[in-house]
């Protein structure tokens, strides 16, 4: 294959950057091509992203070569972007990036989008395999996709253009920082408190403490605003507000618990704003003496009507909201300006009687200190004011709709906090400098000569309000919630401001609460709330959430007491703010490389202080409400943790897990191993964990919560296919372990042979001190029918484990471990069942269609039914046969595969501790007995000894086990291990090894040497004679095991060791076979001859 720049790659030094060159591949023109390449040195051109708006192929050409391009276009090709090389049949075209013929794409944001991103299409860059492997000959650029392939996407069609058309159709609006964040936040922060409670707050707390209350609330919101800016600029924030910020930062546990609280707080806020609106209306009705029932019930009636109207607006659509924001803000600003203007307009007699005297130093001095009444205090007043400072998340909630959220959110949020704080302080100071705390409203309460006065500032200004000390008054800062209307230059403007502030805030909360709740339900954190995740209409409106919010708001409107509602909201919002601040701290503390907020003006310790401040303020405001809030949050946290929703948001909690694990692993490397802390850390050759579940189960029994367990698999074959298969199955198999509650890791390698793969795993598995010290493998049942190379690899693995100083455990059960055939049959049966269900559904559909026709349709229907019945009958017969097959041949295998998951009844674990291997042979069964499934099994110890020293040997062993603090039921000293086995047993052993013997002693030397060279794996006569005593011992041990341990639940036996180069593979396998034949589950164990037990403290 020749890849070259002929015929004369079109170049134009003046053309736009980021160009695509057509590359010709033509085997018939090799000579011409080489001449062109040789005579014309390559030209290198720069690339760029300029002018991406035109979706067409740009081709540059060298001077004088345009006719080649023109000819090319005339060969059936379109001149637009739909370049299709297949029309030329003999040419193949590649794309050029940075002057090189390559599939490597240039960096582009579309490669980093999530699937289903609303801000643009996700593109798929070429995989490393596509770039690394040899380029296929039949690659072609599909119609209309040349430019996209250059940019790394390999899909066909004009999806990008379609998505742009859809975007244009929907009229997707992007807001700047003023309209998108500043206006929204100011509208939400300025609310009912500004007009009808701020005067009362400053009357209770005085100017000094009133300003401190405002600044304390501002401190909380400012720190939270900084944390919000940091989190919101660390990636796009979608709908969900505080829930989205916290859940994506701290994980679903914290996010799910606070999400419900935050949504509920917004729902209650609707009631608060509507009650504020209703209070204003009732005051107007009271002035005109047109109350319907009484004040409280009128508030309930008007509040109910208002929230019903707001619900109707929300359900009908909110398209007007964005345009109305600026108008509402203008109304609010005019109302505030109207108040300030009113403070300098000379007052009149009526207003003086109500306590308004313009700016007076005496009033300022009198109102500077606190005068808490009716059981109120600093923090109770703060609790009532704090909701007026909320609303700072309004901009962050729509960050996906902002042109530049990374700059808009910090600028808009922090500037909104600054402006609203200045406004609150200015209004508080001005109101307290102009209006006295108590006034009667009676124009006749003036001071006449000779009348005594209580010395208040009102007395100095000619009014006597002293009777307010003994009886309630209706006017003044403490008594009249409509002080701002009285002070203002034009009262109805203040009323309009109240209406604008309350209704806009109520409407915003009525929209945000369902949106937050819908985001929570969409994430499926709480399984029972999926009902509320459904959206309706083109804007995916949460109608069901609106109804739920309406019900909650109505319940709190019936309370009709703003001072009762406000502290509840304070606690809920403070809990949300605390977790936002903690999220910022936690993300910074975890030091994840993914924590890269564009907003830099934050500090992790300031965020932590903000979180603690929020928690402290919660308790100071209302300690029992704080305890209830934390109890609810803790309950929801435990619930979500227990349910473990299947989500992965890359939270800082995950990052901290990694950091803690890494720190612990590094700290562990500095700690020297000690025998008291020894634990079996097993490398189990299970293959895919689901294929040999019993091997995993028994290994897991002595490693769970105690040691490391790694399930290993070796892929053999062509490297490319093996790596692809291995990578595709890694997550699936680890997920299977997690789903089945197996505390184990899955590891896989690709290797040329099984032994090479295991050798790699033995050397490279683990981390630091957490490295495997024991190899666990199943017994190779098919060693007699398997190829010699497989047997050599199997025994070689045992030798390798000993070479690397690992202990070895070989496990054998009567039915074997591999259930892959059963799994395959089950999979086939599931497919057949799915096909049967699909066929039935199709037949029903056909029956329905044919039933609509006449007599012909009736007969067709009858024939179809007959056929379908026949097919169903035939298929059910196949299923029955398959089921019988599984039942007859695999039922025992299935039962054996789950035998170690069941609780073991009363019985024994027989330990044949024949050789001292450091104590692993005794430690493994001891660990099993402390597990719940094996705790009813007693340990019986079997060991070798002399006939004349049986009691002494028992005492020695009992003393040793007592020092090791290992309980046992019985000790048996076996004295006849070394006698010859019976003839039948030995004959069986000889017959078993007969096919693998060389019998070289019966042949001449030349023939014998030739046989050794041809079959080096066979057992020689010399070898058999040299290890005859050892062979006797293995056969004799099986006889003893049959005699003493046939009824044991489990046998643990010292594994014989074969000397490398001396004992052949088949002889060693014969030893293991005869040793473990016809027995209960048996573990043949050999430690690495280093102590794993100690009797020292």
Automatic annotation (TrEMBL):
Residues 180-683 form the Amino acid permease/ SLC12A domain. This is Solute carrier family 12 member 1. Residues 42-51 have a biased composition (Basic and acidic residues). Residues 28-51 are annotated as: Disordered. Keywords: Cell membrane, Chloride, Coiled coil, Glycoprotein, Ion transport, Membrane, Phosphoprotein, Potassium, Potassium transport, Sodium, Sodium transport, Symport, Transmembrane, Transmembrane helix, Transport. It comes from Cyanistes caeruleus. Residues 692-1097 form the SLC12A transporter C-terminal domain. GO terms for molecular function: sodium:potassium:chloride symporter activity. The lineage of its organism: Eukaryota, Metazoa, Chordata, Craniata, Vertebrata. It catalyses: K(+)(out) + 2 chloride(out) + Na(+)(out) = K(+)(in) + 2 chloride(in) + Na(+)(in). Residues 822-849 form a coiled coil. It holds the Pfam family AA_permease. It is found in: Cell membrane. The chain crosses the membrane at residues 181-201, 207-237, 258-279, 299-319, 326-345, 378-400, 412-436, 543-562, 568-589, 601-625.
